[in-house]
Write a structure and sequence with these properties.
By secondary structure, this protein is α+β, with helices and mostly antiparallel strands. It is built from 4 helices and 6 strands.
Amino acid sequence: MAGRVTSYQKTPVFLTDYQLKKLKSNEACSIRLDPNKKANHSLFLTKTQVNQLNKAKSAGTSKEIKLSKTQMSKNGGFIITIPTLLAGIGAAASMAGAAGGIAKAVNDKKHNDRTELEAKRHNKEVENLLKATKAMKISGKGAYLPKKNGRGAFLPKRG
């Protein structure tokens, strides 16, 4: 007896998350399909299964379809469609955006810390200059240091 070759046709169907999970197992299973719902995936079905779905659509009902192990391998176990592919790309893009946002926040924090440190250093230097200025006597003819008893100001020796 010669082996029968079954042909499959790619058929758009609506699958729930639970049904997708069942299909990922790559084992023979039964799933109830509602041909009246808008398709979000494609399955490889036999001509008989497609006819059964068309009759169910005419009657406005759903139909339980049995998928063999061979048929499951034909469907690839896991079904990738354009909406799921786009969702994956969108998720990856949002992750990249989030990572970029985190890096920007870290760099902004470092910059703000350096700016604050420089501002503190600058303010301290200005305060020291003001203290020195208060010790000076300022008149219309110039600024004079107060008299102090001592040996005077000398330049360091070169050598």
